[in-house]
Each structure stands twice: as structure tokens, then as C-alpha cells.
Amino acid sequence: MIASVVMSVWGTASAASRGARRPPLKLAWYVEDAAGVEIANQQGDEPINPASVVKVATTLWALERLGPDLRFETRCFARGTVDPAKGVLSGDLVVQGSGDPDFNVENAFLLANALNQVGVHKVSGALVVNRRFWIGWENGSAGADPDPFKRGMLMATRLRQALDPKRWNGTLRRAWRDFATRRGWTSAKPPSVTVSGGIGVDGDVSRGELLVVHRAKPLVDSLRRFNCYSNNDIERLGFNLGPIEELIGLLNVRCDAPPGEIQLETTSGLGTNRLTPRLVVRLLREFRKTCERSGVNVESLLSVAGCDVGTVSRFFPRLVQGDAATSVAGKTGTLTSTDGGVAVLAGFANTGEGNLAFCVAVPNAAGRLKRARSAEEQWVVELLASHGGPRPRACAPPLGEADDGATIILVAGE
């Protein structure tokens, strides 16, 4: 049965590239059953760039180090005096982040409403943030300014804009309308905090009187969003987790990897990273163990084709429909040019013969990513068919928005 999978997938890839100058697409894969027994292996011990599959390792690390229930807090302070009757903070508004990697404009709307409730509508001074405050997505290290002060100034600029409807652009106005509709708020009356004195970055030095606290949704929900959307800003967790060398050390032990075989440059999968398909499957097995110890299931952290929005359902439509729907929970990896481009799909396939952990990759896929994914999709479909057919798995609750599950604590006036 495995031989038929090999021949059909390789034949499809070769036919698609017939007449082209570039060599035909070639797949590498490795598959194990639930007991860790090897089921299929084609170049499974050759190093590949796993791309965003690295996020599975970062997710494991975050669960082990921080726990699934961690809720990051973002605190707002008045460095000055508040006159609730006039709605004015005479002084600076200081926003101290704790490294929340998934704080977005919707969370800023919650902050603006809370500040209005404690009597702050106008700030005569500056909006000051610390260097662990984030808002919006940056595309990980590829988009983040390496200068922490400049990065902080960008975050402060974004927050100031999100708090003040007069500064909104079309994107923010649409975000507000969607937010208000979801929460049943009056869209014609958005909360507003205007800042007259500019922006700054020194929020850890002098804070002032605590006004409100924004407590984020549990970390497990943010990790699921990062994995489903394959968002590279999962790298922001590094501020709370430690240097990447610690992640490499953890994986070396957990995956029983030979020295030097695990090479990671980033925690998002950007850049030059190295794992073999066999090691990716070992990582998946260790990830599942960590999930079990943490009291969560893999469907709560990986994208399930046919259940969740995100890259798995978008790139592999045949896994969303028919008998295959909901049978695969996985993580995609894509690099358009690094290492000649690569497409990867790794995860768990639920079959009539049990749950299989797999990794399938197409190296040197630059300019041919769509065809590479199609070949991987065919490989998965035939893998399911050759092991008793696909079996559905339970879907996790619908993927939430950035503000879902967040809570606000009003401190001023208590």
C-alpha cells in the first residue's frame, strides 16, 4: 500500500514538471503509529528546513515553561492626576505590558472603554509604553525593528491611534465595527482617549497610580491562533521563555537527537532551521505528551482541516471535504525562497488503524508551492486510504478573536 502512495505522488509531481528546467518535485516523509513504530520512510533522515513547523516546538516550550492557563497582563497607570468630572488625566498615561504576544487593536478598544469608565477621556501628557508592550502583528523577526526603542515607539504610535477614533484609518474603522457587532456595543459611540503630549518609551521607570488592568485570554488560546494562522509573532514569547539555545537543549533531550542535528535560528520557523522528518515526528509525539500533561488536546493547539480557519484548511482543500474532513490536525510550513523554498505539512492523521504522526515535505519548492502542496495533499489522502480510511476527530470550539476571553479590572476609585 505504501508503494502505491510513493508511485502516485512522485508520478504526479514529475508529470507536472515535465519539460521544465528545474528538477521534478521530490517528497520526503516519515510516519509512525501511536506506539512509535515506523510505518513509512522516504528520506526521513535527511535534514530539511521545517519552516513554520518550528512553531510546534515553540508551543511545546511555552506549555512547559509558562503553562496553558497563563494570562498576560497589560496595566495602565496615571503618572499625574485624574479629574473624573472633566475626564482629564493631567500628566502621562503609562501602559506597561508583560509580553502579551497577541494584543491587537480589539484589545485596545477594551482598554479605551475601561479608561473612559475610570474617568480618563483626555491625556494632557504623553502616552508612554514599556519595551514589553506589543500591539498588532509584525511577521516575527522579519518585520520587527531590532532597535527596542524604535520598536517601542512604533507600538506606542499604534496604541495612540487605536485609542482615538479621530486617528482611525479605514482598517481600524472596520475592526471597530466588527468588534462592536460581536460584543453588542453601539458602533456609533466608540470609546475614546485622546493624547495631546506625544508618545514615549520608558514605562518601566516611573509608573504612577494604577488605573486599569487588561488580562489576556489564556495562553493556550493565543498559541492556537498563532498555529492556525501560522503567525510569526509567536517569536514574541521569547521575551518570557528565554534564548533559543534553551529550546534547542530541551528538544535535544525530549527528542533524543544526535548532537547538532537540531539547528534552530528562530522560534517561528523564519530563516535557516534544520530538522529531519523523523525528528519532526518525534517532536509531534513529545508535543502530544506535553498536551496531555497540561490537560489540553492537540485539537486545542493545532489546526484541524475542516474545523478551523487557517493555513491547513486553506492550502489543503481535499482534507476539508468528504470523508477526510476533520481527520487531520496539523501544522503547515512554508518558505518562498529561503533554502530554495519549502512546503511542509506535519501532524496527526486519524485513520481506521489508529492515529498516525507524520511529516511530509517538498524541498526546493520555490515558485512551485501550489504544486508542492497538491502533491503533499495527494500523499496524505493516500496515506489515510491505505490505513483503513480517514476517521473524524472532535473539533475544538471555534477559533476566537484577539479579545475573546480577555477581561478588564477597574482599579481606580476602589
Q: Any idea of the CATH topology of the largest domain?
A: Beta-lactamase
For the terminal residues, how far apart are their CA atoms?
69 Å
Largest sheet report: 8 strands, mixed
Q: How much of the polypeptide forms β-strand, as a percent range? A: 15-25%
Would you identify the CATH H-level superfamily of the largest domain? Answer: DD-peptidase/beta-lactamase superfamily
CATH class of the largest domain: Alpha Beta
Radius of gyration: 24 Å
CATH architecture type of the largest domain: 3-Layer(aba) Sandwich
* Overall residue-averaged pLDDT value: 93
Counting DSSP H or I runs of 4 or more residues, the number of helices is: 11
Q: What letter string, H or E per element, gives the SSE order?
A: HEEHEEHEEHHEEEHHHHEHEEEHE
Percentage of residues assigned to helices: 25-40%
